[in-house]
Specification:
Elements lengths: L2 H25 L8 E5 L5 H9 L4 E4 L2 H14 L4 E4 L8 H7 L2 E5 L2 H14 L4 E7 L9 E2 H15 L3 E6 L8 H13 L4 E3 L6 H6 L4 E4 L1 H4 L10
Parallel strand pairs: 1-2, 1-9, 2-3, 3-4, 4-5, 5-6, 5-7, 7-8
Bound molecules: pyridoxal-5'-phosphate.
Pyridoxal-5'-phosphate (PLP) binds next to strand 9 and helix 9.
Length: 233
């Protein structure tokens, strides 16, 4: 596929996703402007990100710090209002680079990572916005703080990071109805006065918007398929 046709594909897919976001918001009686689209560009080349930028997209999500660090600093020079969200499980030894390059880290999920981010923020003199990832399905193989530990973890990080702790994120279990997971996350965020609810991916973002998502993380529906076996986290 040449660059011109891949740009066309990204632009039109992006336009289609935006229409569906607006429709879902209106159907839920919400203002579409209250839903931010995070375009998840993991495993896609810088040229795909550029096509999305040219089509007006500004917020991007990446799973891996190294991939994000390779792609985004150059793009930021040309597009200073670009925002980068790190959405994948984060190793503590990557915390410093994450703090250096991200505008938001959506995957704060354990005390050791909280410690590493606080230390990195001191060293770098900057602290990205933070979301706590909740493992709403309590799946052993998944990232995210278990449901039972979520309340205490939210309180501890609110104390530590103040208003930089902006909200919660979840990835419901594959093959299950995601709606109860979205409802759980929304309620937990409300109970703690947290405004940002990051939920919904290509397969279920309209449902997430109906349940109050303020960030939707959409990859495949914008950029097309990723190499097999590398799909999620
Ligand atoms: C890959 C990924 C997404 C996007 O998934 P799609 O199904 O391609 O839209 C969203 N959130 C996280 C955490 C991801 O890892």
């Amino acid at each position: 596929m040449d660059i011109a046709s891949s740009q066309h594909d990204v632009a039109s897919a992006l336009a289609g996703v935006r229409v569906r976001i607006e429709q879902a918001a209106r159907e839920a009686g919400r203002d579409p402007a209250d839903v931010t689209l995070v375009a998840v560009s993991k495993f896609h080349p810088q040229s795909a990100v550029e096509a999305a930028l040219q089509a007006g997209q500004r917020v991007f999500g990446e799973n891996r710090v190294q991939e994000a660090a390779a792609k985004f600093p150059a793009l930021r020079k040309a597009w200073p209002d670009l925002k980068l969200h790190l959405i994948g499980g984060l190793q503590t030894n990557k915390a410093r680079e994450a703090v250096r390059i991200a505008d938001m880290i959506e995957s704060l999920d354990r005390p050791s990572l909280s410690d590493a981010l606080a230390k990195a923020a001191d060293q770098e003199g900057r602290l990205p916005d933070l979301l706590i990832e909740v493992n709403t399905g309590d799946e052993p193989q998944k990232f995210g703080v278990p449901r039972e530990e979520a309340e205490a973890f939210i309180r501890a990080n609110r104390t530590r990071f103040g208003d930089r702790l902006r909200g919660l994120m979840c990835i419901p279990p594959a093959g299950q109805d995601p709606v109860p997971h979205f409802q759980f996350l929304r309620q937990l965020a409300d109970e703690h006065g947290l405004a940002v609810r990051s939920m919904g991916m290509s397969a279920d973002f309209p449902q997430a918007i109906a349940q109050g998502a303020t960030l939707v993380r959409v990859g495949t529906a914008i950029f097309g398929g990723r190499p097999a076996g590398l799909a999620a986290n």
